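Let's sit down with a protein and look at its sequence and fold side by side. We need material for that, and I hope you will provide a protein of your own picking. Once you have written the record down, we can walk along the chain together.

***
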Amino acid sequence: MATIRKRPNGTLELRYVDADGSRRSIYLPSKTTKLLAETVAAKVDHIVNRQVTGTEPDRNVAQWLADLPDTLYCKLVKNGLAPPRLPAEPEPEPEPQPTLPTVLQWTTQYLEKHSAKPGTTEQLEITARSLAKFLGPDRTIDSITAGDAEDFRRWMEKFGNERKSYSTGLAKNTIRRRIGRSKQFFRSAVKHKLLPSNPFAEEASAVGGNDERLFLVPAAWIERCIRVAPCEDWRIILAFARYAGLRSHECRIQRWEDIDLVNRRMQIRSNKTPPVR
């Protein structure tokens, strides 16, 4: 039976006879109370008895061993009363989260995959440069907020003119077109599940008319321009623009069969509408 003896220096010594009949001692850690020492002695008796019979300790004793601090547990291991503790398995390292592309990287990827007419592509490229200029090329797309989108609009009102080295602002409709193309970039990121929402969603992008820019060009001005035009092509372009309201590209893609002189009718072709079949 295990006994407790207090040594002259105040240390508590637990004496017991092991399974081989040898006398053993365990010097308990300092500040061990007598009550705790008696508990240890009872558990040691139980462990020794089980070693003699070749059986495992009771579950409550096994749990007691598992909860012991390392200092006391190591003493029991040294005396053959407990198995060495296995080293704790290292916690698995968290899987690295994929890094989202930057504004510059995403707009570049989008333009590489996007199929559009040259004019549309050019405007998307200008918008991409403006976004990178204002937001910074190293900002990841998930860091862009609705507040950034609002600030981008305000920046374009004062400094968005790339042709003027970003020293002047842009017209209202131009800004709205840039906002619309910015929405386009980030809408694609939402579709690819890179973003939960579009930071430009609440920004106005509908283009309206600008009455301040309306001006009726007098026919006399055009007639004078036609007379001094360097070639027949230019004379036709000027006439189409003033009297038929054709855009520049529409003048260049018309065909002779589109003009019905007998019925005084003309079919207008345009890159902005589906081809006539």
